[in-house]
Design brief:
The chain is an alpha/beta fold. It has helices at about 10-15, 35-45, 70-80, 90-100, 115-125, 140-145, 175-185, 210-220, 230-240, 250-260, 285-300, 310-325, 325-345, 365, 375-390, 395-400, 430-445, and strands at about 60, 105-110, 130-135, 150-155, 190-195, 225-230, 265-270, 280-285, 360, 390, 395, 415-420, 450-455, 465-470. It has two domains: about 10-60 and about 325-470, Aspartate Aminotransferase, domain 1, CATH 3.90.1150.10; about 70-325, 3-Layer(aba) Sandwich (Aspartate Aminotransferase, domain 2), CATH 3.40.640.10. The longest helix has 20 residues, at about 325-345. The chain is globular. The model is unreliable at about 1-15 (pLDDT under 50).
Length: about 475
C-alpha cells in the first residue's frame, strides 16, 4: 500500500520526537488477508464489523475495551490470585486501589462496566424518573431504560458539532439541566448521569468548572450525581492541559478532585485500568451501597468477587496505579493525536478536537450523498475493512437504536465511525497504515451506496445487526 501522506519529524514540528514509555517483550503475529478474503469475511459477518472473526482482522480498532496490553507487573500479579470464594485478599487490594485513586468509600466489584451500570440503575431509578446525562452511551442508556428511567440529553450544543474546537465539548448545559428540574421536579430526577470524555461525542472531556457547577445545582435540589469513570484518567489529562489552574497538578490529583464532586461512580476497568476484564461500582452512601452489595449477589457473584477471578482483581488493582502514570497518559493520548494529525493532513473529516481514546471519522461529511437511513457510518466501517483489514466501529444511527415509545430510529446529529486505539498495543507504523487506508477510502467516497439492515436484534442492535449492500 502506498501513501501520499507527508512524513512528520520532530524537527518539522519544532520539537523533539517522542516514543512510547515501554518496550516490547512479547509479540502476537498478525494475519494480512487478501481483498477476496476480506470480501468473503465481511459478507459472512453481515457487513457488521462486530461479527467478524478476529483472525480475519489485521489492525483491530473496534474498541479499547479489554484490548489493552497488560504490563509485566500485571501478568506477574495474576500468579498472586486468591481464588477463595469469599473474602479474597485481591478484593481488598482492589478496594484500596479504588479508594486511593478515585476517593469513594464503598466498592462493589463487577465483571465489567455493564454490570455496574445495571446495579446503579436498579438501585437508584424509580420507573418514570428522568436521568439527565451529557449525551447517551449505548449500554448505560439501555440499563437506565430497562429500569424504567427516561434519558434526557443535557450536553452543550457544541458536542453535536464535529467541527467545533470547544475544549470541553462534554460539558453539561447547566441551563438545560435547570429547565428539566423545573419542568419535572427534583423528586422526578433519579440522578445526573455524568460521563468523562464523552464517548459518543468523540471522546470529549468535561471541565472541572462544569462538574463543580453541576454539583452546586444538584445540592440545591437534593439530586445525586453519579459518574461514568471509565475514561476519567484521560479526562484528567485534558483538564491538566486545557483548564486554567491545573497545569501544575498531577493526573492523580485532578482525578481525585473531580470525583469528589460526585456521589459515586461506575467503571469499566477494561479501558483506563488496562485489564482485559473487570469493573466496579463505588458509592459514598452506605444505604445505597448495601442495596447494591446485596443485588450483586443475585447477578454477578459474592460481593468480594463480583463475577471476577481473584487474579483479575489483582491485575485491576495494579492497572489502576499504572493508569495514573504521567508518561503513560501522555503517550496514550499522543498516539491518538498522531493518527489525527495524519488524517488532518490528508483532508479527511473527523471530530475535532481529537479525543482521548479514538479518532471519530465524520461519516456525514465523508458521504454527504448518503442519508442516515442507509447507515453511512456502518458503510464507512465496512469499506475501511475491505480496503485494508482495519476494523473500526459505527457510532451513528445504528448505535442510537430506536425510540422505545415510537419505535422510530433515533437520528443523532453525529454520524461517526470510530477508530479506537487500544492502549500499549500498536506502534506508530500501524497508525501510518490506518491513515493510508482511511485516505484511500476517502478518495473513493463517491462510489459508496450504503447498506440496508436485514436483521435487527431487540437490544443494543449495533452489536449483532446484519446488513447487506444496496
Amino acid at each position: 500500500m502506498t501513501t501520499n501522506l507527508p512524513v512528520t519529524t520532530g524537527h518539522q514540528l519544532g520539537r523533539r520526537s517522542w516514543a512510547e514509555p515501554w518496550k516490547i517483550k512479547m509479540v502476537e503475529p498478525l494475519r494480512v488477508t487478501s481483498p477476496d478474503q476480506r470480501e468473503h469475511a465481511l459478507a459472512e459477518a453481515g457487513y457488521n464489523t462486530f461479527l467478524l472473526r478476529s483472525d480475519d482482522v489485521y489492525i483491530d480498532l473496534l474498541t479499547d475495551s479489554g484490548t489493552s496490553a497488560m504490563s509485566d507487573r500485571q501478568w506477574a500479579g495474576l500468579l498472586l490470585g486468591d481464588e477463595s470464594y469469599a473474602g479474597s485478599r485481591n478484593f481488598y487490594q482492589l478496594e484500596e486501589a479504588v479508594r486511593s485513586a478515585y476517593g469513594y468509600q464503598h466498592v462493589v466489584p463487577t465483571h465489567q462496566g455493564r454490570g455496574a451500570e445495571h446495579l446503579i440503575s436498579q438501585v437508584a431509578i424509580r420507573p418514570g424518573q428522568y436521568v439527565p446525562g451529557n449525551m447517551y452511551f449505548t449500554t448505560t442508556r439501555a440499563h437506565q431504560e430497562l429500569a424504567g428511567g427516561v434519558f434526557e440529553d443535557v450536553i452543550i450544543d457544541e458536542a453535536h458539532d464535529p467541527e467545533s474546537e470547544h475544549p470541553f465539548k462534554g460539558n453539561v448545559d447547566i441551563a438545560r439541566l435547570e429547565r428539566l428540574i423545573a419542568r419535572e421536579g427534583a423528586k422526578n430526577i433519579a440522578y445526573v448521569s455524568l460521563a468523562g470524555t464523552v464517548n459518543m461525542a468523540g471522546g470529549q472531556p468535561v471541565s472541572m468548572e462544569c462538574v463543580r457547577a453541576v454539583r452546586a445545582l444538584c445540592d440545591r435540589h437534593g439530586i445525586r450525581v453519579f459518574l461514568d469513570a471509565t475514561r476519567m484518567v484521560e479526562n484528567a489529562f485534558f483538564i491538566q492541559e486545557r483548564e486554567p489552574g491545573y497545569a501544575g497538578k498531577t493526573i492523580a490529583e485532578i482525578l481525585r478532585e473531580f470525583c469528589s464532586y460526585t456521589d459515586g461512580a461506575w467503571m469499566s476497568a477494561k479501558k483506563d485500568s488496562l485489564v482485559n476484564i473487570g469493573g466496579w461500582l463505588a458509592l459514598n452512601d452506605r444505604d445505597l451501597f448495601e442495596e447494591a452489595r446485596n443485588l450483586v449477589v443475585v447477578y454477578e457473584g459474592l460481593h468480594t468477587y463480583g463475577g471476577l477471578a481473584g487474579r483479575d482483581m489483582q491485575a485491576m488493582a495494579i492497572g489502576i496505579a499504572e493508569s495514573l502514570q504521567e508518561d503513560h497518559v501522555r503517550a496514550r493520548i499522543g498516539q491518538v493525536r498522531y493518527l489525527g494529525d495524519l488524517l488532518a493532513r490528508a483532508g479527511v473529516p473527523f471530530v475535532r478536537p481529537v479525543g482521548g481514546h479514538a479518532v471519530f471519522l465524520d461519516a456525514r461529511r465523508f458521504y454527504p450523498h448518503l442519508s442516515q437511513d442507509v447507515f453511512p457510518a456502518q458503510t464507512l466501517a465496512a469499506e475501511l475493512y475491505l480496503d485494508s483489514g482495519v476494523r473500526s466501529m459505527e457510532r451513528g444511527v445504528v448505535s442510537a437504536g430506536r425510540d422505545p415509545a415510537t419505535g422510530e430510529h433515533h437520528y443523532p446529529r453525529l454520524e461517526l465511525t470510530r477508530l479506537t486505539i487500544p492502549r500499549r498495543v500498536y506502534t506508530q507504523a500501524h497508525m501510518d497504515i490506518v491513515a493510508e487506508s482511511v485516505q484511500a477510502v476517502y478518495e473513493q467516497r463517491e462510489s459508496a451506496k450504503g447498506l440496508v439492515m436485514t436483521y435487527e436484534p431487540r437490544y443494543l442492535r449495533f452489536f449483532q445487526a446484519r446488513f447487506d449492500r444496496l
